[in-house]
């Protein structure tokens, strides 16, 4: 006959033993979370205080998680962060750049607010106030990033049974402020091209003249809708100018981990971002010009590169673009502005579904919300439809015609 085992976390009858000096020891056999029975004891001035101290020990022991740094409700928040980061590395599912971003957001945005709290003290209300304050004082984006890492860390705490529920589940929804998506006009694109052609090409300027890569990068962004990191990751093997129209394959991105050199990551932001697209003639023209420079390089060589043939970094390209445009009085244009412009142009001509496909989005709703400039003009066909409500239309209906 197999005896039923005592459930984990239960204990038998408490034994009390008087000690010299008048104190009392309370002792009990307790089945720990590894399944083994152990003696747990506590001492108090009286029988009642010894029992209270013993039950306190048992409560703390029940909330402990063996093998995971002994995380429990009374663990300090930094202890959870350390275990969470270790778990991210163990799972090894994140790209290096994403892993670095998560840690930076946790340490810079979240840790200053919660480092002196235990897990038990980080309640729904405290998290809710923290995120709303961060959204108001900093930005909605920062609050959203803080919410992401907090939710992941506390999700781990729940899985490890350190706490019962994730406090992020009960917070109020972060209300995103109204934002107007702005695409560049044709005239603005022309002005940008002119500014890039003239930048640092006047006589008497110190230093080397621009090598033309910045202008070419902009033309590729306008012809592909690709993100700046994706454009900088295009290799010789990713382009085909022998077809009509020419094609470009997006299959990677440039990342710059903290303290390390930039390198090509063999996958872009999402799996859907891997795509091959036909490009307009102006983009094919600059690609052919870049290929001429790379005629003696192998197929893995990047289309755009530094003087040392290393990857260009997105941050440096953004800085150069900002400087070039500012010299001609153009401000506020970022590489993402070209992506929004492409999305809006394609949507106007062929609909949001095709724009989403070109941008590598999983849903056209993402494209509509973040990348397409709203068109305030209602389809002119409504005027023709509403003619039925005019005097002539109403008379025709009443007469049965």
TrEMBL record:
Organism: Xylanimonas cellulosilytica (strain DSM 15894 / JCM 12276 / CECT 5975 / KCTC 9989 / LMG 20990 / NBRC 107835 / XIL07)
Listed name of the protein: Integrase family protein
Sorted UniProt keywords: DNA integration, DNA recombination, DNA-binding
GO molecular function, one term: DNA binding
Residue span, Tyr recombinase domain: 179-387
Transmembrane segments: none
Record keyword DNA-binding present: yes
Family to which the UniProt record says this protein belongs: Belongs to the 'phage' integrase family.
């Amino acid at each position: 006959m197999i005896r039923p085992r005592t459930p984990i976390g239960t204990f038998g009858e408490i034994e009390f033993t008087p000690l010299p000096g008048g104190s009392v020891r309370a002792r009990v056999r307790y089945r720990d979370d590894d399944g083994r029975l152990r003696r747990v004891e506590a001492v108090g001035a009286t029988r009642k205080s010894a029992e209270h101290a013993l039950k306190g020990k048992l409560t703390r022991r029940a909330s402990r998680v063996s093998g995971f740094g002994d995380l429990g409700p009374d663990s300090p928040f930094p202890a959870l962060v350390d275990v969470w980061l270790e778990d991210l590395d163990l799972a090894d599912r994140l790209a290096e750049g994403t892993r670095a971003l998560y840690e930076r957001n946790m340490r810079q945005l979240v840790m200053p607010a919660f480092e002196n709290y235990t897990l038990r003290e980080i309640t729904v209300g405290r998290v809710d106030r923290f995120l709303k304050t961060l959204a108001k004082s900093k930005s909605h984006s920062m609050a959203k990033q803080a919410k992401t890492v907090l939710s992941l860390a506390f999700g781990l705490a729940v899985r490890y049974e350190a706490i019962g529920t994730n406090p992020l589940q009960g917070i109020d929804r972060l209300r995103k402020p109204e934002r107007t998506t702005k695409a560049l006009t044709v005239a603005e694109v022309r002005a940008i091209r002119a500014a890039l052609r003239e930048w640092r090409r006047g006589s008497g300027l110190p230093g080397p003249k621009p090598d033309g890569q910045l202008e070419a990068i902009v033309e590729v962004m306008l012809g592909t809708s690709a993100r700046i990191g994706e454009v900088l990751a295009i290799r010789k093997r990713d382009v085909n100018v022998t077809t009509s129209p020419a094609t470009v394959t997006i299959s990677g991105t440039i990342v710059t981990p903290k303290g390390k050199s930039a390198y090509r990551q063999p996958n872009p932001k999402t799996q859907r971002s891997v795509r091959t697209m036909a490009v307009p003639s102006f983009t094919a023209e600059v690609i052919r010009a870049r290929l001429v420079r790379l005629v003696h390089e192998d197929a893995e060589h990047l289309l755009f590169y530094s003087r040392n043939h290393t990857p260009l970094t997105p941050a440096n390209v953004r800085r150069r673009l900002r400087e070039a445009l500012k010299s001609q009085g153009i401000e506020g244009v970022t590489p993402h502005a070209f992506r929004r412009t492409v999305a809006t142009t394609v949507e106007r001509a062929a609909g949001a579904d095709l724009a989403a496909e070109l941008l590598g989005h999983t849903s056209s709703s993402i494209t509509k919300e973040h990348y397409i400039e709203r068109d305030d003009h209602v389809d002119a066909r409504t005027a023709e439809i509403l003619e039925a409500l005019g005097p002539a239309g109403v008379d025709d209906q009443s007469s049965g015609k």
